[in-house]
Amino acid sequence: MTNDRTQGLDGLFRPRSVAVVGASRRPGSIGRQVVANLIRGGFEGPVYPVNPKAEVVLSVPSFASVRAIPGKVDLAVLVVPPDAVLRVAEECGKKGVKGLVVITAGFREIGGIGIEREDKLRAIADREGIEREAKLARIAAKYRMRVVGPNCMGIVNTEPGFSLDASFSATLPRPGAVAMVSQSGALGEAILADAAQAGLGVAMFASVGNRVDVTAADLLGYWEDDPHVRVILLYLETVGEAADFVAVARRVARKKPIIAVKSGRSDAGAAAASSHTGSVAGADVAVDTLLAQCGVLRVDNFRDMFALARALLDQPLPKGPRMAVVTNAGGPGILATDALAASGLSIDELSKATTKALQKALPVEASTRNPIDLIASADAARYRAALRPVARDPSVDGLVVLFVSPVMIDAAAVAQAIVDETKGCGRPVLACVMGRQRGDEAQRILDGGGIPVFRYPEDAATTLRAMLRRQHWLQRRPTKLPKLRVQRAAAARILARYRDGGWVAGNDAEAVLAAYGVPFPESRRVRTAGEAVAAAHELGWPVVLKAESRELVHKSEHRAVRTGLRNGEEVFAAANDLLTRLRGEFRDLRLQVQSQAKGHREVLVGMTRDPRYGPVYAAGLGGVQVEVMRDVAVRVGPLDGDDPREMFLGLKGARLLGPFRGAPAADVQLAGTALLRLQQLVEDFPAIAEVEINPFILAAPGGGSVAVDGRIRLEAR
Ligand code: ADP
Ligand code: MG
């Protein structure tokens, strides 16, 4: 789909002519490498080196300036010193250049790939770089040039008719079906090299650097309908332009897989948030869920990325989690089974017909049950006899075929058997060849048959899990939100009192949440022990007594919550204790007397507003142990009607919410609705920075589940 953001990108990736401004004769210089790459890559149009001090660069006549080039210039690659970039960009604009690749560093970033001497680069003040970048953006806009960079490694398009390598990469990628974006220049080089090693051909590549103009999201859009591009790989350091990215990625991922390595898993950014939700829903968790929600497959490292890319290029997705393992050695079979199970896949029983066929074909010592062990004497014929029924068994969604190469067996013939017998079976087939070198004949045969080969079963499992994730994502259809009745005006009246922001007082937070339909137990707010006793008599027994103050965010940390109080004496004693202990510390101290909830499971629902990604919602096992258990599912808004249920079901401790050891199932549905009500509240009041209900005490459905503790923090307005 072409839109504003993809327009003009042909000027970068499909130019008819290229100028290299700052082309150099000096061996080892970037200015020389770029010219060399254009020639080596076999660029189809003219290449114009620009260097006032040289007549020829690498046998190509050079020009004194862009203006001096006689013909049209579509793309200009800038390798000039930072203080020359703006002047050259302006000149390119006047010349009618359509795209700029600015390799030069010394802009917004500090460090990076310098083409000047490093110490000089460091001396460039931060400010100066930021201003220069802003000016570059203005020049590009004025002349309608699209810009990749600055501070990047360049771009590549192997498409026939262009064969453009406008980069200084040492690796010349071979043409293929993968498109890649790297936010890091240095890693871009590594990615190209590793992709080549992994046998992946490249359709297009861009190192986007500081992204003054062209972003990963733009390129996703550009590649959406490009028939040469079948898989997209991203190396991200930040998900900048998050809203753009989400919208485009969600759309593109429906058509072709997007795989991302995103660095920065250990982001400490969440420390600032003060609620439980905030501390658990850290910045990286937000990115993780954001990527997952828009269908981007996040992997841990480049090895997994390339393996997954190969599998997605050549293999269908599994329709379900049921894997069959076929092996000629017991140990690796068990390893594979363990790895698959740990990845959420299952090794189930085979159908009766398959088992019968295996019993007929295999020797008695072999195992005809999944994992199917053909034992060490298995030759190609035995692999064939086993694979034929297994690959077409309706109770099998995918296959992992292991082969530990014994000397007396013809490995190439086994490889051929694997290829032949699984061809067109409609299920993913991954091979794991242990104890052999890459590049031997067996490996070549499997490669040629489009079967990804792994050295270790764990890696095959990782790849299959990601493939299944994609299948689930493609199958998922958003469910409409239920109609929620809320009293917006009542909530607005209360929140209007907090213009200065900060924590909303407990009774007000409760009233706002109640206005949005969240059920709370009956309670009274009082000042003295005597009043507390009277209130408790009104409510009925047992009661819970809490000390409240706007500064008292986590009450139980101050032993300010007393549950299970059964009579007047207990309430009186507890109230006196709280008042004497805490009155000095919290000046607005009050007591809350609350009916004790009857439920048996505590969960939390909450939201923190991420400065980048907007509302991030959390659902988890709640109570005071949240920080310890950290069993919380997080999703970036907007949530659809099915999200809350999926969030609760996805918890490690989800079983606790079902019937468990004599306790009935908890009313998760109600907690889910409470989360959707929070969402409505957050959307109605953008000043809400954090909101959390912890705990929501769940009883059996219809058994009086209630929220007993709610808090809201507002931004100052
Ligand atoms: P805080 O989170 O500020 O420490 P809470 O109001 O959440 O204080 O209370 C802490 C714990 O006390 C809850 O997780 C819950 O186990 C228990 N609790 C609080 N209020 C009630 C209530 N009304 N009924 C039953 N248990 C309660
Ligand atoms: Mg609480």
Describe this structure in words.
The chain has 717 residues and is of the alpha/beta class. Helices cover 36% and strands 20% of the residues. Strand 10 (175-182), helix 6 (185-197) and strand 11 (202-207) form a beta-alpha-beta unit. The longest helix has 19 residues, at 457-475. It is flat, with a radius of gyration of 31 Å. Residues 110-122 and 267-274 have low confidence and may be disordered. The structure holds adenosine-5'-diphosphate and magnesium ion. Magnesium ion (MG) is lined by residues 694-695, 709.
Main attributes of the structure:
binds magnesium ion, 717 residues, flat, alpha/beta, binds adenosine-5'-diphosphate, 7-stranded antiparallel sheet, 30 strands, 24 helices
Write the layout of secondary structure elements.
Elements: H1 10-13, E1 18-21, H2 30-40, E2 47-50, E3 56-57, E4 60-61, E5 75-78, H3 85-95, E6 99-102, H4 118-123, H5 126-142, E7 146-148, E8 154-157, E9 164-167, E10 175-182, H6 185-197, E11 202-207, H7 216-223, E12 231-236, H8 242-255, E13 258-262, H9 276-280, H10 283-293, E14 296-299, H11 302-314, E15 323-327, H12 330-342, H13 352-361, E16 372-373, H14 380-390, E17 398-404, H15 411-422, E18 429-434, H16 441-448, E19 453-454, H17 457-475, H18 488-495, E20 502-503, H19 506-515, E21 523-526, H20 529-539, E22 543-548, E23 561-565, H21 568-582, E24 590-595, E25 601-610, E26 614-621, H22 626-629, E27 632-636, H23 643-649, H24 668-684, E28 688-698, E29 706-707, E30 710-714
Parallel strand pairs: 1-2, 1-5, 5-6, 6-7, 10-11, 10-12, 12-13, 13-14, 15-16, 15-17, 17-18, 18-19
Antiparallel strand pairs: 3-4, 8-9, 8-11, 20-30, 21-24, 22-23, 22-24, 25-26, 25-28, 26-27, 28-29, 28-30
Helix pairs in contact: 3-5, 7-8, 11-17, 12-17, 13-14, 14-15, 15-16, 18-19, 20-21, 23-24
Adenosine-5'-diphosphate binds near residues 694 and 697.
